[in-house]
Design brief:
Number of helices: 3
Largest sheet: 4 strands, parallel
Shape: globular
Helix content: 10-25%
CATH superfamily: NADP-dependent oxidoreductase domain
Distance between the termini: 44 Å
């Protein structure tokens, strides 16, 4: 595997990132375990999930599956997505992004999240909640 440096982070990542949108949904735990195991065997060390994938189940499945080989993986997750009906349950404001980083996510792996890309530009200006309310 020809690993690539991820920006200026110093992290070396596989050129292929394992997406986990179906984990906790169409892909049950045993299927997800086989997929993650095959990816690791192939040299993939970059895995992506999001708080919104299957109402957070994907992040929890990923957390359980990578726990024992945590140092092997570079974990990317996404925040900012609408996770409830309230105006403060979405967006790119500090409060919501801190919630995305600190929990509930992959239990016990909060300090190991390497990337938190914003899925889209927030409407309403810096820190806006994505619904135009600012």
């Amino acid at each position: 595997m020809n690993y690539k440096l991820l920006g200026r982070s110093g992290l070396a990542v596989s050129p292929v990132c394992l997406g986990t949108m179906m984990f906790g949904g169409r892909s049950d735990d045993s299927t997800a375990a086989r997929i993650v195991g095959s990816a690791q065997d192939a040299g993939i060390n970059f895995i992506d999930t999001a708080d919104v994938y299957n109402d957070g189940k994907s992040e929890r499945v990923v957390g359980r599956l990578i726990r024992k080989q945590r140092d092997h993986w570079v974990l990317a997750t996404k925040g900012g997505n609408a996770m409830g009906p309230g105006p403060n349950e979405r967006g790119l404001g500090r409060r919501w992004l801190m919630r995305a980083v600190e929990g509930p996510g992959p239990a016990g792996h909060r300090r190991h999240r390497h990337l938190l890309p914003a899925p889209r530009r927030s409407r309403g200006g810096p820190g806006g909640n994505g619904d135009g309310a600012g």
